[in-house]
Design goal:
By secondary structure, the chain is α+β, with helices and mostly antiparallel strands. It has a single domain (4-115), classed as Beta Polymerase, domain 2, CATH 3.30.460. The protein is 31% helix and 24% strand. It has helices at residues 4-18, 47-63, 94-100, 102-105, and strands at residues 22-28, 38-44, 70-72, 79-83, 87-93, 110-113. A six-stranded mixed beta sheet has the order 3-4-5-2-1-6. The N and C termini lie far apart (60 Å).
Length: 138
């Protein structure tokens, strides 16, 4: 039977997938630090996308009775941190994620990667309206 923290992580990952977060992973830090138990890391496509991910995560967590302890980065929207104490969610613009390289910094952590979309059939499908545009002169 999954623990409460496992269920909380799964709720977070499910939400990020539904909102088209990408490159989602969970890092198990329990053997490496006393600061937190898990990092959840996710990339967003734009400033607005990051804000939407963060807002939805905060609101749904409050509704579930587990509000975050602290949120920062909403002003700059390059790296938004949502801190649940035992789980810290990092929402990055792709460039910021590559620059700060948390996956390399915490390279000894066990990592679980998740599909970008919740259903296998949708994994390779782009969100509606994001397909490449094709121009022709006809």
């Amino acid at each position: 039977m999954p623990s409460g923290i496992d269920l909380h992580i799964q709720r977070i990952v499910d939400l990020l997938q539904r909102k088209y977060g990408s490159d989602i992973l969970v890092m198990d830090l329990r053997q490496l630090t006393d600061t937190t138990d898990y990092f959840v890391i996710c990339s967003g496509n734009s400033d607005q996308h990051l804000k939407a991910l963060a807002d939805e995560l905060v609101e749904s967590s409050k509704a579930a009775g587990d509000p975050p302890w602290h949120v920062e980065g909403l002003e700059t929207r390059r790296w938004i941190l949502v801190d649940f104490v035992h789980i810290v969610v990092h929402l990055f613009r792709r460039e910021a994620r590559e620059f700060y390289a948390l996956e390399r910094l915490w390279g000894d952590a066990a990592i679980t990667r998740y599909a970008d979309y919740p259903d296998a059939a949708d994994r390779d499908a782009a969100p509606e309206g994001s397909a490449d545009l094709v121009f022709s002169r006809s």
